[in-house]
Amino acid sequence: MASEVGILLHNLERIGGLPTLGAMYEEFLPPNKDLAKHNKYPTIVIELLRIHVELYKFYNTTFIENIWCTLPTRNKRTLRRRKLRPRKGAILHTSCQEQMLDLNVTTKCEFITFLAFWLSRIVLPHGKEVIRPETFVMAALMAPRQRISLALIVLSYNYYGLGDVASHPNHHGKANAIFPIHYVIGWLAELFPSLYRRRPGSDYLGDFSSLFCYAGLLGSKLSLPQARHIFKDGGYLSLRASSYREDSRNGRDVIDMGLSDKDFKFLLSIWSFVLPVHVGAELLLEPYYPNRLARQFGFDQGVPSNHLSFIRSLR
Q1: Which of 4, 8, 84, 274 has a CA between 20 and 30 Å from the CA of residue 153?
Q2: CA distance 307 to 305
Q3: Are 109 and 44 in contact (CB under 8 A)?
Q4: CB-based burial, 179-210: b 16+ in 10 Å, e otherwise
Q5: Can you name the residues that pair with 80 across neighbouring β-strands?
Q6: Backbone angles phi, psi at 21, to 5 degrees
Q7: DSSP assignment of the chain
Q8: Rounded Cα gap, residues 262 and 243, in angstroms
Q9: Whether the model pTM is above 0.85
């Protein structure tokens, strides 16, 4: 049955381009004593923190997302703003005073500012629209192509968000949960082609992830009974999203300490374990049972005694 298929770590890497293997992702702010040690963290983290503080002070707000996005494309990294001040002896008349801020953004920092935005708003959206300084260390590590395991945390974060939606006491639509659901939509579109139409191959290059094929496209207009029929009928299911090609020329046993990264990533995706997620100030743990779709909607798949009727909030 189609309802028995669940999203795997393997799917996130194949569809969303997120690596499964690599260093663990964790958001945190290093203490000053550690930042002073040049071999502890990349020195570019100090520059990112300085820019973030200067923008916060200059605009007197944490909502600096629009300004932050333009940093990599600015020829002159000088920001201007107009501040209104009342004239002496007048109540209604005001005068404009232009203030300037030179950020001194280095070329090396330009790409990392984009990575920090990408982590804060695209990969792991969390709370208000802000650039989280907690992402700076991870962004600095990713810039020189150090591999970070993003699939683990994104899948866990989606589990948590979908669990919030499913466990809302009043109505699922009122949960107002914030999580990277576009990865779930990409998985659904690949698994159930009837739900979403795909961009033609001429619209994108071959090295783009499958998620790009559905960006900005609306889903099919289906009634609730039609959607339920698609999920229940296995004839609509495409296993392309979960397929794995084994090299027939390789005679290794599956359980082998010498597995290649490709083999080990797939083996990891079918194990049951606990997924950690540390986003902002939240530290969460979500169980990973890659055997059922129901797990994504707040149900634990550990074969509970009450037949899957209890949800995450009651564990």
Answers
A1: 4
A2: 6
A3: yes
A4: bbbbbbbbbbbbbbbbbbeeeeeeeeeeeebb
A5: 100
A6: -90, 160
A7: -GGG----HHHHHHHH---SSSEEP------HHHHTSTTTS-THHHHHHHHHHHHHHHHTSS--HHHHHHGGG-SS-EEEEEEEEEPTT-SS-EEEEEEEEE----HHHHHHHHHHHIIIIIIS--SSS---GGGHHHHHHHTTT--EEHHHHHHHHHHHHHHHHHT-SS-GGG----S-HHHHHHHHHHH-TTTB----GGGS-TTS-GGGGGTTPPBP---HHHHHHHHH-GGG--GGGG-----TT----SS-TT--HHHHHHHHHTS-EEEEEEETTEEEEEEE-TT-GGGGGTB--S--TTTT--BGGG-
A8: 13
A9: no
Q: pLDDT tens, 175-198?
A: 788 888 888 888 888 888 888 877
Residue 77 structure tokens? 């990294």
- Terminus-to-terminus CA distance in the chain, angstroms? 27
Tens-digit pLDDT profile for residues 252-309: 444 445 667 777 777 777 667 777 777 877 787 887 766 554 444 444 444 444 443 4
CA distance linking residue 310 with residue 273, whole number of Å? 19
The residue with tokens 């564990």 is 315
Encoding tokens for residue 120?
């804060």
Q: Residue 45: name the closest of 177, 138, 107 by CA.
A: 138
